[in-house]
Each structure stands twice: as structure tokens, then as C-alpha cells.
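Need a sequence for this fold. Nothing fancy.
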């Protein structure tokens, strides 16, 4: 019998539901203590004193028994006294069982993970009703207690947020060394490990973006950019935010974008390396990609518009631009 079973039988004995066989098991378990060091006298008291006290209580009960009670045969005295001693010991153990400090409740700290594969998009609703559009090759982590006292999560990759308003619980997103704090707003965060910076672009409302050294407040049509190389945060004004809503659905739109910027972004979304060879200093891209489709389709579309060729070598894609733009 282990301690859990022991205390379970104590419960049954105290409420009067223990059978004779169960009481006998308790007696046997108690007697097994005599040859072990399991007995805690500081908690339960000395065995000899408890047994002596039980004898006195038993004698008192016999003397005050109601008239007409059948006499107790002497032959059973030893067994009754032994059982009584055991019952007192069990009562003491039961007192300790119910008086001991309760075990701490389990903390809801289990991590909840939402992840997307290359080329995959997910729209999720957090426990506080915040809506998140998670971009490809991205990870979002938060605890099971999210929304119950705090609203903090970790983002690796890119996501668009529509944060549910709750003035009592600021919404905090950890992206590497950058924290974004907000009460209720909509904004986009790009924080892929492979990119050289972390960018937070605000569509509505206002957020605070900062690290251990500094922080900036970002309003609509503004973007905060944290440089991983320098550790500094800069703020850009007049940012075109019209494409953010289509971007969260996986549609990337470009208007005179540098070819390396476009290739890098596709590489983040599909978790691959894209190299470009040739002179592309005067090459710009006008168009859009639906990243819900395959990477090969997007790259062929890009090469066709630039009159370039595409090669595939393992996990690396190579765009060759032999002629000037």
C-alpha cells in the first residue's frame, strides 16, 4: 500500500464507510511502520504515547457504556486495545492529512504554439478575441493563461494583428530583442530570423516599439524599424499601408521595388535562399505575388517580367540576369 492509498482509506474510515478488510489493511500498514523510519513523530506524535492515550479513551468508553450493553469478553481485550491504538494512530494521521498545507495548484504555463509551413497562411483567434493573420514560415507562442491577467506572446516571422481593446491588459508581442506594446489597434510585424531588421507598421491605433535601450511610439502610416546590427530603432513617416490588408491574405504587392528586396521577402515566406547574379542596380519590380501558391510559380513570374532565367540547386534558387534592365 502506498501513501495515496493509505490516506484514501483514512478518508473512508473517518466517514464510517471502511469495511473490516480495509480496517485490517490499515492496521497492517501501521504495524509495518515499526521497522521503518517512515513515521514522522514531529507531525504525528510518539507511537507509545498515542497508544497509551487510546487505551485510556477506550477504558473511559467501556465505563460509560450504556446499560444493557453486552459485556466484552476478556479474550478480545488485547485485540480491541491493539485495534483501538491503531485507530488513534490513524486519527492522528488523518488530522495531519487534513491539516497539511494544500499542494499548489498547477500553473497554466503550457505553451500554445501556432506555426505555418513555407507558403502556408493561417488566420487564428486568440482567447481575448484578437485576430491574427500568420504569414508563411512563422511561429506564434503564448501560454494557456493568455488573457487571464496578461496578454503576452512571442512572434518569430510575420503576422498582422487586429488587437481586441482591453485597457486593463496591454497586448505585448516579443520579437527577438524588440517588444511591441498596444491596447487596441491593427498593425503588421515582420520579424523573421533571417532578415536584418524587425519592422512594425501601424494601420490603425498606436503602439510602442522598444527594447532595453529605447522606445518609439508609432501611429498610423508610420513604421518602426529595429536594426539587429546596431540595436537602434528608427521611425519612418508616410508609409503606404494600403497593401497591409491584402498582405495578410498572402498577396504581396510591389511598386518599383528593388529586385533583391523582392527576392529576400519571397525567401522569408518560403524558407529558402534566393540568389541573384548579374547587374540589377537598375532593376525594379512592379506587380504582385499570391504566396498561397508555389514558390516556383512566383519565381517564374518574376523572371519572366525581368527577362531573367531561373536555376534550382538543392535548397537554393538562382536568378540569372545576363542583360541590363
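Here you go.
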Amino acid at each position: 500500500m502506498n501513501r495515496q492509498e493509505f490516506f484514501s482509506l483514512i478518508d473512508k474510515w473517518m466517514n464510517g464507510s471502511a469495511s473490516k478488510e480495509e480496517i485490517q489493511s490499515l492496521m497492517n500498514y501501521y504495524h509495518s511502520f515499526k521497522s521503518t523510519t517512515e513515521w514522522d513523530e514531529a507531525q504525528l506524535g510518539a507511537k507509545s504515547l498515542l497508544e497509551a492515550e487510546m487505551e485510556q479513551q477506550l477504558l473511559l468508553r467501556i465505563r460509560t457504556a450504556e446499560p444493557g450493553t453486552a459485556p466484552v469478553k476478556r479474550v478480545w481485550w488485547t485485540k480491541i486495545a491493539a485495534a483501538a491504538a491503531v485507530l488513534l494512530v490513524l486519527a492522528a494521521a488523518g488530522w495531519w492529512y487534513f491539516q497539511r498545507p494544500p499542494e499548489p495548484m498547477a500553473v497554466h504555463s503550457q505553451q500554445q504554439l501556432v506555426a505555418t509551413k513555407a507558403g502556408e497562411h493561417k488566420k487564428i483567434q486568440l482567447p481575448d478575441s484578437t485576430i491574427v493573420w500568420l504569414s508563411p514560415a512563422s511561429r506564434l507562442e503564448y501560454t494557456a493563461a493568455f488573457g487571464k491577467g496578461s496578454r503576452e506572446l512571442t512572434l518569430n516571422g510575420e503576422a498582422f494583428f487586429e488587437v481586441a481593446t482591453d485597457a486593463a491588459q496591454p497586448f505585448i508581442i516579443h520579437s527577438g530583442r524588440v517588444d511591441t506594446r498596444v491596447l487596441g489597434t491593427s498593425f503588421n510585424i515582420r520579424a523573421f530570423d533571417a532578415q536584418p531588421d524587425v519592422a512594425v507598421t501601424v494601420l490603425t491605433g498606436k503602439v510602442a516599439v522598444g527594447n532595453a535601450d529605447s522606445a518609439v511610439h508609432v501611429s498610423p502610416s508610420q513604421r518602426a524599424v529595429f536594426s539587429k546590427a546596431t540595436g537602434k530603432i528608427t521611425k519612418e513617416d508616410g508609409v503606404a499601408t494600403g497593401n497591409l490588408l491584402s498582405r495578410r491574405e498572402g498577396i504581396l504587392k510591389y511598386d518599383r521595388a528593388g529586385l533583391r528586396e523582392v527576392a529576400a521577402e519571397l525567401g522569408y515566406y518560403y524558407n529558402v535562399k534566393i540568389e541573384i547574379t548579374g547587374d540589377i542596380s537598375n532593376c525594379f519590380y512592379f506587380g504582385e505575388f499570391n504566396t498561397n501558391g508555389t514558390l516556383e510559380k512566383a519565381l517564374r513570374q518574376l523572371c519572366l517580367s525581368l527577362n531573367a532565367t531561373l536555376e534550382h540547386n538543392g535548397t537554393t534558387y538562382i536568378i540569372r540576369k545576363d542583360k541590363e534592365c
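For context: The longest helix spans residues 77-99.
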